[in-house]
Specification:
212 residues, 7-stranded mixed sheet, 6 helices, 9 strands, EC 1.11.1.26, NADH-dependent peroxiredoxin activity
């Protein structure tokens, strides 16, 4: 599935990405700190490489909660890469602002993942994080599997930062379930813990199943 993610006229409704469905292909301009250069990232190419995509929307460069979030994500970046993820931070800033912020803000010195620019807000609108009153993005995290299906979404308001430990946990759960589609992961599941296998025998007996 591929479609253009264009900003519609204000009175036209826009289709949003939905959990459980394939998402539209997109291409964004980027600043890549690891290489110190500008480039582009394309969802279809990430999928062809067999990778998961993590989109990490944040309000703006040169703000206050944002660098703490990006620094926290940087601490988990290597672990997420090892799971087969392409991590892409996205805001409505330009790639030039990304470069300037990454260079000047000491909290970002360990950021190696892609920093993508969505200055028109087109992709941000598609994922439902664009705030038209401010022109900024809410704090949204989206996990897209290698088939292009959106499997997880989290959106916070401006004033609440996210936790990359939980993102890593959700990634491990989604990878496990992709490999074991007959199973389900209970609350707080971590790698190696017991899963559930839904069936008529499990109805009303989840407690007993988890004790086995």
């Amino acid at each position: 599935m591929s479609c253009e993610v264009n900003v519609p006229h204000h009175h036209h409704p826009i289709e949003h990405a939905k959990v459980g469905r394939k998402v539209c292909d997109f291409t964004l301009e980027t600043y890549v700190p690891r290489e110190g250069s500008f480039g582009t990232v394309n969802l279809e190419e990430v999928q062809k490489a067999g990778k998961w995509t993590i989109l990490f929307f944040y309000p703006a460069d040169f703000t206050f909660v944002c660098p703490t979030e990006l620094a926290d994500l940087a601490e988990k970046h290597q672990a997420l890469e090892q799971l087969g993820c392409e991590v892409i931070a996205v805001s409505t800033d330009t790639k030039f602002a990304h470069l300037a912020w990454r260079t000047s803000e000491k909290l970002l010195e360990n950021v190696r993942y892609i920093m993508a620019a969505d200055p028109t807000g087109a992709l941000s609108r598609y994922f439902g994080v664009y705030d038209c009153q401010t022109g900024l993005d809410l704090r949204g995290t989206f996990i897209i599997n290698p088939d292009g299906v959106l499997v997880s979404t989290e959106i916070n308001f401006y004033n609440v930062g996210r936790n990359s430990d939980e993102l890593h946990r959700k990634m491990e759960a989604n990878i496990h379930l992709r490999e074991n589609p007959q199973e389900a992961c209970p609350a707080k599941w971590t790698k190696g813990a017991k899963t559930l296998t839904p069936s008529e025998k499990l109805v009303g007996k989840v407690y007993e199943s988890l004790q086995e």
